[in-house]
Amino acid sequence: MIVGLTGGIGSGKSAAAKIFVELGIDVIDADELSKNVLIENQKAKKIFVEKFGQKYINSNDEIDRELLREDIFKDEKKRKDLEGIIHPIVREEISEFVVNSKSIYKIIMVPLILETNSVDAYEKIVVVDCDLDKQIERASRRDDVSKENVENIIKNQASREERLSIADQVIMNNASLDDLRLEVIKVHQKLLGLKIDE
């Protein structure tokens, strides 16, 4: 079974994913793959330079992520062009992961399931959810960015209600890591088809 694990910025997807791994479940982070494609995949980097030009390559022959992030945030076409390079390679790597995974179900951690119209790619969808103020506080602390920046990112993502509308299971993450662990274990048992007392 292929499970999509999603949630807004700062909801605690990564923390939940680590607990699933501790429970013996294979997890792949689509966001992490996307971030590293242009670093680790020479073919992708070559296509990127041909399409975007040398101005995004810094003196260390690396992609200037800051400049690229700024530009794609302002330019829809550039963002789509970038996705056109990255997404096919990420899909390929995820397919390999699914084929090679030996765990009873596999988790693909994806920040944007609704936004990328990929709901049908998963047999079950698990949403990590928390209150908005917690989300803003966590994300701004973790990424060392202003609360205003985080609020802008949240506005550009699916709303909490939209995300919850596609959830087969919800993991609430408003409290401590121990509470999160209990929530993840509960969902893990449900995904295994075990009958548990709520």
TrEMBL record:
Which GO biological process categories is it annotated with? coenzyme A biosynthetic process
Q: Which GO terms describe its cellular component?
A: cytoplasm
Query: EC class of this enzyme?
Result: transferase
For this protein, the record's Gene3D superfamilies field holds: P-loop containing nucleotide triphosphate hydrolases (3.40.50.300)
Q: Return one GO MF term.
A: dephospho-CoA kinase activity
Instruction: Supply the EC number(s).
Output: 2.7.1.24
Coiled coil (UniProt feature): none
PANTHER family noted in UniProt: BIFUNCTIONAL COENZYME A SYNTHASE-RELATED (PTHR10695:SF46), DEPHOSPHO-COA KINASE-RELATED (PTHR10695)
In its UniProt entry, what is this protein called?
Dephospho-CoA kinase
Organism for this UniProt entry: SAR86 cluster bacterium SAR86A
Encoding gene, per UniProt annotation: coaE
